[in-house]
């Protein structure tokens, strides 16, 4: 009986039946799958177009070798204003037209208000994104944003930092004047402007008595270089361990550990000063520490919150401001007539005075146009900070899947001939004369500081340093390139990085014109 049962179980009839059942099941599943696909094709729009992909890596290879914002601009010109790339395991959607950005910001604002939560640099350097730039959209973000708007970087607070800005700028002009009379008067203006902005921001954040200034700035520089590095885990979330093998994770954690130690020392010093009522109330760290001690907060400010907010101010506020001044000076040197025009305006408006104050800035209307045109051609963050799509939706006829990371190419928008004309690549400040277009986020063809809910909260703070620094450089000095160098030799390309600063430092010859004796 056992043998008969065994025989009947494995008889040819059994295998035929099993095969037929398996075959019919496959047919049914394929039929259902086809129906689902047909329905999906009816209901869902196609993914945005994009270049062909390679197995495993997708489109990663196409972003190697040049600046991503320039590569993505060329891809947009080939494939359309909304493109979809596959970077490893991640969908990356890039918007490069006003129409696409308008739908993202206006029609689907809440679906694109979040940030990617798993980016390596954010998790490690920004204390799990506990500031405002990378924190997920929601109650915590609203609270952090309110702190920026009401407590830290409102117009009153920014005005209170005027003396700090002026002191930093006058030290810069004094140093330039001394070098101008030296045997080797060629200066690295890029480096000097960066030092000036760093000095300004660190005094605003920690005061002028902070013993850890030099160490902190050195570590911030290291952190910025790390942010620009390629993280495998960002493209292959399931292969996070590879960042350990490449050494990037260890490097980030080492920088973070050093920064954390310095932060703890600075915070301890400021807490002693606050307890003794000897603190400078306007310092950013003092504002945050007072908020940390407040009770009954729905979302308490922790020590890590304080560190994360200050880190993002340094990472976003120092290099970006210095980069704008660097690019403005480069464009003016490359366009001598424009340089002459803006200098004439400033010097005539000063009416013979040699001491330029921040209150003089509103007199310089053409300088304002120069800054706008610089921001159009050289936005501080060419691809803005990435967003993430939280719910599948349709943008200009294409499907953006939930979970896709979304980039807005501000660099491409600022060079769109549809809005800026056939001379969009040219530096022409006059294009803004009498124009209502501004960088406050409402004109989508010009969004160097972002737009929508996630627009940069530090615009006023950063712009104040740019205006004052640039005005002093143009007021006190005439500028030319080193001997033997022609205008066409000036390198106008960017490095690949968070703020796309110049690939080559700006080396120039300053000639003092307006005396500095009353200004230093």
Spatially, the strands of the biggest sheet line up as: 1-2-7-4
Proportion of residues in helical segments: 40-55%
Kindly identify the CATH topology of the largest domain: Cytochrome p450
CATH class (first level) name of the largest domain? Mainly Alpha
Question: What is the count of structural domains?
Answer: 2
Category by helix and strand content: alpha+beta
Tell the overall outline.
globular
Helical segment tally?
A: 20
For the record, the CATH architecture of the largest domain stands as: Orthogonal Bundle
Report the end-to-end length measured between terminal Cα atoms.
110 Å
The CATH fourth-level homologous superfamily of the largest domain: Cytochrome P450
Rg, rounded, reads 28 Å
H and E string: HHHEEHHHHHEHHHHHHHHHEEEEHHHEE
Question: In this structure, how is the largest beta sheet organized?
Answer: 4 strands, mixed
Question: Which properties best describe this structure?
Answer:
alpha+beta; four-stranded mixed sheet; disordered N terminus; three-stranded antiparallel sheet; 520 residues; 9 strands; Cytochrome p450
């Amino acid at each position: 009986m056992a043998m008969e049962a065994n025989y009947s179980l494995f008889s040819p009839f059994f295998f035929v039946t099993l095969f037929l059942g398996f075959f019919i099941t496959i047919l049914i599943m394929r039929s259902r799958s086809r129906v689902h696909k047909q329905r999906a094709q009816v209901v869902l729009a196609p993914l945005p177009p994009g270049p062909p992909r390679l197995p495993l890596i997708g489109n990663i290879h196409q972003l190697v070798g040049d600046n991503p914002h320039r590569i993505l601009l060329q891809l947009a010109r080939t494939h359309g204003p909304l493109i979809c790339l596959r970077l490893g395991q991640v969908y990356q959607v890039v918007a490069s037209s006003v129409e696409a950005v308008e739908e993202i910001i206006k029609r689907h604002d809440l679906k694109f208000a979040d940030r990617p939560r798993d980016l390596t640099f954010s998790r490690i350097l920004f204390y799990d994104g506990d500031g405002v730039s990378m924190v997920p959209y929601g109650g915590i973000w609203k609270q952090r944003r309110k702190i920026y708007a009401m407590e830290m970087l409102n117009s009153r607070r920014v005005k209170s930092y005027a003396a700090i800005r002026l002191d930093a700028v006058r030290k810069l002009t004094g140093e330039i004047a001394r070098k101008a009379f030296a045997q080797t008067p060629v200066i690295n203006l890029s480096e000097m402007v960066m030092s000036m902005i760093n000095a300004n921001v660190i005094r605003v954040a920690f005061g002028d008595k902070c013993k850890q200034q030099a160490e902190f700035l050195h570590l911030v520089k290291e952190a910025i270089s790390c942010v620009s590095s390629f993280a495998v885990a960002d493209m292959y979330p399931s292969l996070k361990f590879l960042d350990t093998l490449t050494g990037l994770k260890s490097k980030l954690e080492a920088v973070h550990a050093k920064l954390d130690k310095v932060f703890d020392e600075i915070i301890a010093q400021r807490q002693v000063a606050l307890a003794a009522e000897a603190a400078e109330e306007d310092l950013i760290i003092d504002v945050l520490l007072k908020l940390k001690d407040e009770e009954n907060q729905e979302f308490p400010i922790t020590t890590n919150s304080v560190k994360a907010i200050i880190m993002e101010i340094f990472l976003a506020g120092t290099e970006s401001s210095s980069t704008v001044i660097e690019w403005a000076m480069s464009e003016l040197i490359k366009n001598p007539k424009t340089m002459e025009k803006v200098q004439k305006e400033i010097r005539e408006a000063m009416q013979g005075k040699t001491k330029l104050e921040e209150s003089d800035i509103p007199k310089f209307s053409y300088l304002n146009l120069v800054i706008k045109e610089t921001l159009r051609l050289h936005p501080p963050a060419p691809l803005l900070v990435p967003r993430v799509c939280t719910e599948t939706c349709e943008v200009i006829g294409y499907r953006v899947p939930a979970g896709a990371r979304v980039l807005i190419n501000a660099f491409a928008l600022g060079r769109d001939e549809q809005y800026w004309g056939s001379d969009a690549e040219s530096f022409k400040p006059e294009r803004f004369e009498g124009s209502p277009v501004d960088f406050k986020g409402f004109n989508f063809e010009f969004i160097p500081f972002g737009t929508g809910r996630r627009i940069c909260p530090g615009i006023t703070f950063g712009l104040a340093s740019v205006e004052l620094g640039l005005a002093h450089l143009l007021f006190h000095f005439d500028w030319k390139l080193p001997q033997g160098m022609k205008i066409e030799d000036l390198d106008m390309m960017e490095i690949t990085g968070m703020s796309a600063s110049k690939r080559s430092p700006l080396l120039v010859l300053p000639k003092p014109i307006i005396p500095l004796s009353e200004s230093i």
